[in-house]
Amino acid sequence: MEKKVFSIQGVELKTLTLADGVFNREVNEGAIYYAICNELANCRTGTASTKTRAEVKGSSRKPWKQKGTGRARAGRRRSPVWVGGGVVFGPRPRDYSYAVPKKLKQLAMKSILSLKAKEDRLKIVEDFSIASGKTKELVAILKQLSCNERTVIVLKDNDQMIKRAGANLPLVRFLSYNRLRAHDLFYGRSILMLESAATQLNEFYSDKKAEAPV
Length: 214
Known about the structure:
CATH topology of the largest domain: Ribosomal Protein L4, Chain: A
Helix content: 25-40%
Structural class: alpha/beta
């Protein structure tokens, strides 16, 4: 597919050929769902914890004798039915992270990129950098490109100066072309992709298999 390339002033410069298998394929909603669920699960800390009747503070002596008092039977004050007693089946520290197949992740990323391209929310921009690292320069560029909503900027590499310029912009996220996140891409209202990053994505998510050596 052909996509227009814009300058940082919002002027159309040329067209860029993008791989149909990455930017113009059938959207697989199931793959997107599983990829986002996996990322959210991997972000969970899993530190919630409660104490059982064996861990709470209290005596293990029987409060009163078994029979003759007219009250219900009681074994110890740490029982879950007593105030201050243990918790039954409460949360314990655990690891919520899990792995999903690599092909599923790739399918999810290609589906999201294709979805954003079809919705005309994907814009290719010429390579630029912000040497000063100042926020006002990045804000001026975003205004020229009509990005007033939640924006995701896809970079070719780990450009620290651009990231520094957008560090205090709550609606701006930065991703490298080889470390995309399904959650940020899917919920981003505007996707700004540097020209070099788009070129690299054509190869990074290519379906072509390397030929076996003879």
